[in-house]
Here is the input.
Amino acid sequence: MQSSWLLFLLAAPWAGALVAAVSGGRRHGLAKRVALAATVAPGVALLLGANRLLGASLETPWIPELGVTFALRFDALTLPFVLNLLLVAVAAAWYGWGYLAHAERCHLCYALILGFIGSMMGTLLADDLLLFFVFWEGMLVTSALLLAGWGDGERVGAVTLKYVLYTQFGSLLVLAGVAWLVSITGVMRFSDLQVGLFDGAPRELLWVAGLMTVGFLVKMAIFPLHTWLPDAHSIAPMPVTVLLAGAMLSMGAYGLMRLPMSLLGVAGLRSFQVPLMILALVSEAYGALMALASHDIKRLVAYSSVSQMGYVLFALASLTGRGVGGASLHIVSHGILKAALFMSVGLLMQATGRRRIEDLGGLWRVMPGPILALTASAVALTGMPPFVAFHSEWLILSGGLASGHPVLAYLEFLVPLFTAGYALWLAVRLALGPTPEGLQVGPTSTAMRWSLYALVIAALGIGLHPNALYHWAGDAAAQLLGTLPYG
Here is the structure.
């Protein structure tokens, strides 16, 4: 029974992609309903059976000559990432009802969106290294096709090429590391990578872990491997931007936890700890400063992702139960809030036809709902209670203090000030700033508004009742570090 639910989580978006692709001339009506159903159904299945799914596995031979199996597994490390993916996927699919209503070849766009979601789901559920990489590459192929086919602006081709080159560079590093790992250990299954299994192993494994770490940092858009992100986010259709920022960036963090961290264990990771914590702090500060300097509203929110992924890296590098638990929790809080910010921005762009910040202002009087949602999301991103990010940032900061590097931890305490700087400035400027001459506000889509409001309510609701998320994030940390939750 568990294996059937596990297969359903993976199959639902792919089946939806197939139906949407062949819907053809029926255009938006059928494709949009299929997209929403293919994300809501696995989301409901997860919420109803999350604890029962833990430990579920499925295995069938795939390439016996190479010892490769079609193996899936759902464990404590997977759960927060799958939850985040499905929350963001439902929001993106629902938002697309309005945003993609007049898009050309919208059935193919929905099919690729579902394929993108299915690739991310496969990445999270794969228990075989080769299967993991197949789905990892699927993310690149589907997202690149979405950028090339439905991107906005004159530089779509150049930006898509840059995106492909950067992310493929990261993928090749991951592939090289995986191949090297298999040649050294013969291990093909994630479930065989016990915590600290290779403690004290040859230095060669440090190089393997280093290769994979750089590859995963590209996917996380950590400075200085981030430059693909602002350009890609600025041209992508908004539902795709929501998925890129809210879900795909987290795949890099998942890969980092699932491979290098599981491979080396805490003892083996000590040599990487301080460099990664410093890199995380630089990424946090750089992303925040670039957000403050941005004139384009989408690029501002995109640069904030560079900063927020720095939070996750810092938490993981702390090598503490609180830090790693905070990283898992921050994946969910960042996914919800970043999706909400981009969806708010999309509504403003649809209503005004503008995206330069200096061309927008005084919108509280004419768009109170979207502006309130944007303001709430911006405030929440700074870590203010009672929203969900308060809990993740608290764990990250306390994990930093327990890491044994107090100076770096104290610097981390300053980062929320940078976040507040750009997030609150943006909200105040758009809501209460001077109204530019000639600014006209048109109607907005009901589906776009209510999908946004639902995410903001989710951020508040989880913040007020975080117990389940604390439990799941703590279990993820315990599995990765081999300690008690938050130990």
